[in-house]
Structures are given as C-alpha cells and as structure tokens.
Design a protein that fits this description.
A: mainly beta; Thrombin, subunit H; Pdz3 Domain; N-terminal domain of MutM-like DNA repair proteins; 3 domains; eight-stranded antiparallel beta sheet; six-stranded antiparallel beta barrel; 29 strands; B: about 500 residues; alpha+beta; 10 helices; 28 strands; about 35% strand
C-alpha cells in the first residue's frame, strides 16, 4: 500500500517551518470573491485516547492532533474520520477568532474516512457561507486546498493541478479502496479534512499524502462525499456494500478459448465468491461476468462510467444496502441475467483498523485471550503460520461462519499456575475442554463454568501440547493476577 | 513478437549457509599447558582440502550460482581416507587434497557424506594418485575424553608449519552445528585460536589420537564446537563399507513435562521425569512400533529421562535424550522405550531406521541435487524445498507465502498427495502468459485432469494436452483453472531456449 495517511493525530511541535507550508499570496482577482468562504473553513482540535491493544485493561495513551473541517449546511461540519477518531474532546476554532467551540461527532465513516461534526451552539456560524458540493474535477484543472497545516496557526491555501483520478486505497482503515483524486498541491499534516475548492465549489476533501513522493496529495472526491451524506440521511451510517466476488482478468487468448468466449475483450473470471456475501449461491467460481448495470465489463474488470474507465466495483460503490445491481454472466455455456441485492459484509471488518472500540479480552489465571483483528495485528507481533492463515482465510474461506472470533492467547501474566506457559503466546485457541471456541465470549464462558472441572484443557493451533490449568487453582490465581498486575476488570467482552 | 523478459525473482538470495564463524587473527595467548601432541608428528596425519562449491540458483533453477571456494584441514583416518566436515562436500564441484608442505596435490571424491551430522569422508578420485598418501600415518580414534581433559586443535599455517592449540573440554551437549534441527553430541572446547590459512574445519586430537572434528569457532567467547569422537567413530565405521546408512531417528517430536499442571493432567508421579510425545511422524520407526501422540517416555534403553529430556550418561554426565537414538545406535538397532500411556506403564520396542531427507515431502536440504523444475510457455513450476523457502530472505519463516509455509509446517496435511509439492513459482512474461503475470506461489493439484505428485508427473501430464490442444492447470485452494495453448507455449519454449535457458525441465528422483 503506497498511500500513507497524513498524521494529524500528533501534537504540533514548534520547529522550523517547511517552506511549502507558508501561505502563498492569493491572486488579486479571485481573492475578494472567495475570501468570505474562508470563514467557513474551521480548525479542529482533537483530544484523543488511543486504545491499548497490548494491555487491553489499561486506559491507553492520551494524545491529540489538529485537522481542518468546513461548513456544508446548518450545523454540519465535514471533516476526515481520522481527524476525530477515538476523540475524547473536540474543539472548533474559526479563522481569526480566539473562541473555541466544543463539537461532537454526529456521523463517522471509517471506511471512506469522512465524518460529520456538530457544535453545541451554531448561532455564531449562522451567517457563514455554506460550501456546496461540486463534481469530480477534470484532469489538469486547477484546485485550491484550504486548511490549517503544520507551520503556523493561521489558515493556509495551496494550489495544485489534478494529476490523476484512480480507484485506490484509503489508508485510514487499511482495508478500503474507493475513487481517489491525486493533486500536486502540497497537503501536509493538519490539512486533513479541509476543502479542495474549484470555481467556488468543493470538489474534494484533502485526506492523505505520500511519504515517498513530493507534491502528491490525495483528496476524497465528491461521489464518495455524496454517498456518505446520502447514507446518513436515515440517521445512521451503514457500511459500504460489497459484491463479495473476487475476479481474474481474461486477457489470455488460451483462457478465452477454453471458456469459449469470443475475442471481444469483454468479461472477467469469477475466482471466489465470499460465503454469505451478496453473490453467494448466485455466482460461482469459473463464471464469467460480462456486464454490471448494463455497463460492459472489459477483460481487465473495468467499465466506462461517465467517460472514465473505472473498476467495475465503482457501480457497487455508489449503492446502498438493499439496492440491486443487474449482473450478466456466463455459467457453463449458459447466459444468466439477474438483479442481485447488495449487502454489507460485517466479517470483512476483520481486515480494517477499528476505532472507537474498547479492546475485548478475558484474563484467565494470568492467561490473556483477545480476539484477532487488524488492531491486534498492528500492535503485537504475530508470526505463527496458523494464526496468519486463520486471519487471511477468515472471510474468503468463510471461517467466520464457524468462528465469529479467532481467539488468541496473547499474553501470560506470570503466576505460579502458568509459569511454564509463556512459550504458548501468539497462538490461536482451537478448543477448550473439547469444545470448539467460536468467539471470545464463548471462550470466556467455557473458562468460567458454574463448577470448574478438574482441569481446563486449552488446545492451541500448532502447539506441541495442550495448555493445562488445574480447575481448583483458577480462583486464587485470578485474584493474585488481578492484584499484582492491577487488572481491575478481568474481562471486557463488549466493544 | 519479441517476448518481454521480466523474471519474477521470488528467490532473492541464495540459500543461506550456516558458515563456521571465522575469527579475526588474534594474538597468540600464552599457553597454559604445552600441547600433548607433537606438532611435527601431526603433519603426517593431516591434509589440506580445497573445495570449489557451486549451488543451484533456486530462483532460476535452470542455472547455477557463481562458484565459491573454501579450505579446511582434514584428518587422515584410514589409508587413503580423509575426514572433514560435510560443509566442505556440500555442492562441491571439485575437491582437491594438498599435502601440508604443498608438494603434492590430488583430486578427491566423496566416499560418504552426512549433512545432518556434518561429516564427510573423502578418498582419491583416481588410484593413480595413490602416492599422495605415501608416508602418511592415519590417526587412531581416541577414547572419548572426559570433561576437563585437554584437547589439541590442529592447524597448519600457510608455510606448512603445524600449529597446535590446546583447549579444555568445557562441556558436552547435544547441539546442531550445521543444519537446523539436527542435533548431535558435541564438545565445547575453550581455546584461543588464530586463523591460520584454513577455515575452522579442523581435526581435534586427544593424546595424539582423533577426538573429534572442529566445526565452528566463536572468537569472542573463544569457544569451539567439536563433533564428538563417538559420532565421528560411528560415521567412519558406517562409511568404511562404502554403503553409508547414516544416523537413525525415531520420528517423533516431544514436549517437556516440567509444568506441574501438565504433569497432574497426565497423571505423572511427582518425583519422576518423562517426555510428552507431541507428534509421531507417519512412516517413522516410532509409528511402526506403535508409539502414539500423548504417550510419555519415561526411560530409553533403561536410562530414566528427566522432565527436561536429559538422562545420566555414564561417561559424559547429563545428556539430552536424543543422543540415545541418534548417537548411540545404528539403523536397524532396537531401542526400548518405557512409556506411560494414560498413566499405565507400557513398553515399546522400536526398530530404528534412517529417515532419508529425500523421502520427505519438503526436503530440508538439497545439497548437490539439481532442483526439479519445468518451464512451460513461461510458467515456471518448482518442487517445494526448504532452501527454496529460505530464498525469501533472513525472515523467511514469516515472509514466505503462507500456503507454502503451511506445507512446510504441517506436512501431514499434504502427504497423501504425492512425493513432492509442485507449485507455480512465477511467470515469465511471454505471449503465452499474457494476463497470467500476477500468478505465483500457487500449489498445483492437477494438470489436464491428472493428479500432480511430483515434477515427473507434472511433465507427464503436460505431455497429454486436451483434444482442443489446450492444457488445463488447477491449483490448490483456487477454484479456477488456468489454460495454456500448446502451440503458443511450444513456440515460446523454443524462444526461451534461444534466449539461453539451457533446458526447460528437470525431474530428479
């Protein structure tokens, strides 16, 4: 993954100013017309509490950061999700005013890195101009990025040209890809969430940069913004929907001949259908998908949408749970047409960083069990082959249908009952007392029965032997561990 | 059309060899005790060895890597027979013996080699060089030394002067000194050595007799690993008849029983030892003898095994249990195991055999064996081996593709499929592989409907394309097949040959 998020979640430090963050002079002509709109670009100060996945009973680290937001309606401030993620306090400041307005998150969408904030009292903002949402800017056209990047306290404006329109990854969640626009204006920490303006309209939200390259900034284009705003109209944010299909390009002439396809450059091969997904039971591996909502799919999996070649998923991207897509495909020589109802795929969150969640865990006789997710993967070193396979197969192979969580033994807090067990950390739990472990909650129940068995037998994937804890030793061990390691709550089963 | 050559180099580095630690020249330390061996007399019993080694390129298996050279000092152990480490014989293309005075040279051949024990026995390539050994004096095997004994490490300087460094035998342990996971009885000798023309692959004497072979030297701690005389003597004895059988194994993996909870669950007595059997390898001598996962081994051949896996050796003191199998026995010998099965005492007698690495699904080493492969229309197929996995770099055990690592870690899941795991290692961009470039590291299950059991069966399966002139390739865990046009692939193969691929396939047994 090349794109790296602009890290707003670091406190600003005083230091020499990078040259490019100095505010450039505005062209005289445009200045008068647009300067009024600058009032509606606000500075967001976030106090953040980062959850601690390595010692999940602890409070986590307190930190903070600066980002940008802008007014898009009555008491509606749009910004990036990553500016306000895990926030414990939000303050909004207006350009040229010392006053700080307490704000809160109304809607947050981590999969497309957008959030909508509101202030407690909007009356001071009533007269502010409201940004209207424009279209996707065309290649080579000029845009302005407005925000509060590092290098100074006041508003900064930079200019750039649209250099690429692509379908690419959004680094905030580490798992999502959407339409993205690359510009050559400098986007620096603090710019995140700021408007990108063209002809007086917002054409994107500045959100990430690239560490290895100069003058590459990425903005969230308006189709993604519009989708977010439409999604929350019903009062809550649902996740993006997913087709649940993996495809392989069909360039190869031999491949086309074997599938009895004409040499017309159309169609992609279905290689996997996610169990329980939208297409489960409809498509199957080996089918050839040729059109989606009437758009012909080329052999690279692209469609022509509004004059641009985009990934076929772009059609799905703009839809919501319950909407349908019309698919046409070839299956074993037969043509099929069907409207497929789209739905979200909650288990795929396994691969996304989670925010605003309290880490789940249970401590049993000093053994710490946690559910496997990307947050945990990012925090502790997990290199056991079995664990990595369970992770990567979790959705594609439908492991989630059998196990809601993959439960890991992550730590052993030293205690006389477990002093020989430190070698077992980092392994996944298969069974407890012969019962297949389905979730962390299930593991917790199996480890805390009404009457303890003689022995708790915990079987781990890839371990040389089972982990054994004498049933009558658990209560005392729990008490000791809780006291010695200051673990106030021995379990947290809810996010 | 000119095919575009982009070699998907999955294998970035060659198989990392475990090299003996070579020390920087250190100032000679004052000798605590004069060497027991007469330095001048040792010259008649040692010979310099130079070897040229060239391994195959695991990433591009049709060619070899650049050759390298290595030197050592061998011990003459019988008329015309020289003992050295297996490292010297690994991937050797040319081995030459040289008398210490540099007057005589003779090409050598490998009589027997054991990569696991890191020992090799060399002889003359040609009988016509027999005069090379005139005037030499084979070393006798020493009685196994005891802890604290002084051992003499023999080196020969560039100018032919012998250099004998006495060292004290600090400890005896069962360690692995060349290949990971291969444990053999080893002496740890403390001596301050200098680097003298040879690498640290040297004879070690006790009272002028051969007590072992030095395999590595750590200049920082001044500790050498010396393969024990017991192992050396057994190797020479087994190699002498020309039919080297090797060191046997039981075919189990174990877990210690020092955890009180675990012992209580296993119903093991408080004051006893015992080793928990974690896995029993299919087809191994333990399985044939009826050993089961979950058994607890309490004694081997009457030696009680403690909960950490050690027994009391009458000569060396506490040693790891594996020596009772790998060091003390030969293939065909019987070993008696006292077990506790579900808390009940049981006795099992296992006839030991040698597990040949070539019979493993994923061989741990492939010295001297050319890798099996097939290049078909630009698709590159290989057989999975550990050296191939090691090509994914220093951290291969976490970097290599998961599906391949899974085979290596859990071979029992895959053993029913055949002799080897064949996988699509990568794709050379050719007109026949347009659109296939992203495919790599996929385990091949079937080609043209036939099960793939090894490289040979893959080549045979490709020889029978479908009636439409197409090959169909199916992969493990992937629910789609890839197709190759025979005519297009033949044209590509002809071009690849023109472009310097010496041959497009190799299937070693």
């Amino acid at each position: 993954m090349l794109a790296r998020s602009i890290l707003t979640l670091t406190l600003l430090t005083a230091g020499p100013l990078p040259a490019q963050t100095a505010a450039p002079a505005l062209p005289g002509s445009a200045a008068a017309a647009v300067s009024d709109v600058y009032r509606s670009v606000v500075r967001i100060e976030a106090a953040v509490q980062m959850p601690d996945y390595s010692t999940p009973w602890n409070s986590g680290r307190f930190t903070g950061g600066i980002g940008t937001g802008f007014v898009i309606g009555k008491n509606q401030f749009l910004t990036n999700a990553h500016v306000v993620s895990n926030s414990s306090r939000l303050l909004i400041t207006v350009h040229g005013s010392p006053r700080k307005y307490p704000a809160r998150v109304k809607f947050i969408a981590h999969d497309c890195d957008l959030a909508l904030l509101e202030v407690e009292d909007f009356s001071d903002f009533e007269k502010f101009p409201v940004f209207s949402i424009g279209e996707v800017p065309s290649l080579e056209s000029q845009v302005r990025v407005i925000g509060y990047p590092i290098g100074g306290e006041r508003l900064s404006v930079t200019r750039g040209v649209v250099s690429r329109i692509d379908f690419s990854s959004y680094s905030h969640s580490r798992a999502d890809s959407h339409l993205i626009v690359q510009i050559d204006a400098a986007i620096n920490p603090g710019n995140s969430g700021g408007p990108v303006v063209q002809d007086g309209k917002v054409v994107g939200v500045a959100f990430q940069g690239l560490r290895q390259a100069d003058n590459t900034g990425y903005i969230i284009p308006t189709p993604v913004v519009r989708r977010f705003l439409k999604d929350i109209e019903d009062g809550r944010y649902d996740h993006y929907v997913d087709l649940g299909v993996a495809t392989f390009p069909l360039f190869n002439p031999a491949m086309r001949r074997a599938l009895k396809l004409p040499d017309n450059g159309l169609g992609v091969l279905v290689t996997n259908v996610t169990p329980t997904g939208a297409c489960d039971g409809i498509l199957k591996p080996g089918d050839v998908l040729v059109s989606i909502d009437g758009f012909p799919i080329d052999s690279a999996g692209q469609i022509l949408l509004a004059g641009e070649k985009v990934d076929l998923n772009e059609v799905v991207e703009r839809k919501f749970a319950g909407d349908t897509v019309a698919l046409r495909w070839l299956s074993a020589g037969t043509w099929n047409d069907r409207d497929v109802a789209l739905k979200t795929l909650p288990p795929s969150r396994m691969y996304a960083i989670q925010y605003e969640k309290k880490p789940r865990y249970t401590v049993f006789a000093g053994l710490v069990f946690q559910p496997l997710d990307t947050n945990l993967f990012a925090t502790i070193k997990l290199d056991d082959v079995n664990v990595r396979r369970l992770y990567s197969d979790f959705v594609p192979k439908g492991i989630f249908t059998e196990r809601e969580d993959i439960v890991l033994l992550t730590r052993v807090e030293s205690d006389p009952v477990n002093s020989q067990l430190s070698g077992f950390t980092g392994l996944a739990v298969d069974k407890i007392n012969g019962t297949l472990v389905k979730s962390l909650k299930h593991a917790h129940e199996l480890l805390n029965p009404a009457t303890p068995p003689d022995f708790f037998v915990i079987e781990l994937f890839g371990a040389a032997r089972p982990v054994i804890i004498a049933g009558n030793a658990v209560a005392a061990a729990n008490e000791r561990v809780s006291k010695t390691y200051d673990i106030q709550k021995l379990s947290n089963l809810e996010e | 059309m000119r095919p575009l050559f982009i070699f998907p180099l999955l294998i970035l580095a060659a198989c990392e060899r475990h090299e003996a630690v070579v020390a920087a020249p250190a100032p000679a330390a004052p000798l605590a005790t004069p060497p027991a061996a007469d330095p001048a007399a040792t010259l008649a019993s040692v010979v310099r060895i130079s070897t040229t080694q060239q391994a195959w390129n695991e990433g591009q298996p049709w060619e070899k890597q650049p050759p390298g050279k290595r030197r050592s000092l061998g011990a003459i152990v019988a008329p015309g027979q020289v003992l050295t480490t297996a490292e010297m014989a690994a991937d050797a293309t040319y081995i030459e013996l040289e008398s210490p005075d540099g007057k005589q040279l003779a090409p050598a051949k490998v009589i027997a080699v054991d990569f696991e024990a890191n020992l090799a026995l060399l002889g003359l390539e040609s009988e016509s060089d027999a005069k090379f050994f005139e005037g030499t004096k084979p070393l006798e095997m020493a009685v196994p030394p005891k802890l604290g004994d002084t051992l003499d490490i023999v080196q020969v300087e560039e100018n032919g002067t012998p250099l004998v460094t006495p060292g004290s035998l600090l400890s005896v342990d069962v360690v692995s000194n060349f290949l990971p996971g291969q444990f053999f009885l080893t002496y740890e000798v403390k001596a301050s050595m200098q680097s003298a023309a040879n690498s640290f692959s040297l004879p070690v004497l006790h009272d002028g007799k051969l007590a072992g072979l030095l395999t590595s030297y750590d200049s920082k701690d001044q500790i050498s690993d010396v393969t024990a005389s017991d192992i050396v003597a057994r190797f020479i004895k087994e190699a002498a008849d020309g039919e080297y059988a090797g060191f046997p194994s039981l075919g189990i993996s174990i877990s210690r029983t020092d955890d009180a909870n675990f012992r209580a669950w296993l119903k093991l007595p408080e004051d006893d030892g015992g080793l928990y059997v974690s896995t029993v390898k299919a087809g191994g001598s333990a399985e044939k003898a009826g050993l089961k996962k979950g058994d607890v081994i309490v004694a081997i051949d009457g030696h009680p095994i403690d909960r950490l896996g050690y027994f009391e050796d009458s000569h060396y003191g506490r040693l790891y249990w594996s020596h009772l199998v790998r060091g003390a026995k030969s293939a065909g010998d019987t070993v008696k195991l006292d077990l506790l099965r579900d808390g009940q005492p049981t006795i099992v007698e296992a006839v030991l055999d040698r597990r040949d690495e070539q019979d493993q699904l994923v061989p741990a080493y492939t010295f001297g064996k050319a890798p099996s492969y097939l290049v078909k229309g630009g698709l590159v197929f290989q057989e999975l081996t550990r050296p191939l996995l090691e090509g994914f770099g220093e951290e291969w055990s976490s970097r290599a593709p998961l599906n391949l690592l899974d085979v290596y870690e859990n071979p029992q899941k895959y053993e029913s499929r055949g002799r080897r795991i064949v996988f699509l290692a990568g794709v050379i961009a050719t007109p026949a592989t347009v659109g296939y470039e992203p495919l790599r590291n996929l385990i091949v299950t079937k080609v043209n409907g036939q099960d793939i059991k090894d490289m040979k069966s893959l080549i045979e399966a490709f020889a029978q394309p479908g009636a439409d002139g197409m090959d169909q390739i199916e992969f493990d865990e992937e629910k789609f097949s890839v197709h190759l046009d025979e005519a297009a692939s033949d044209a590509v193969d002809a071009q690849l040959k023109q472009r310097g691929l010496s041959r497009l396939s190799r299937a070693e047994n």
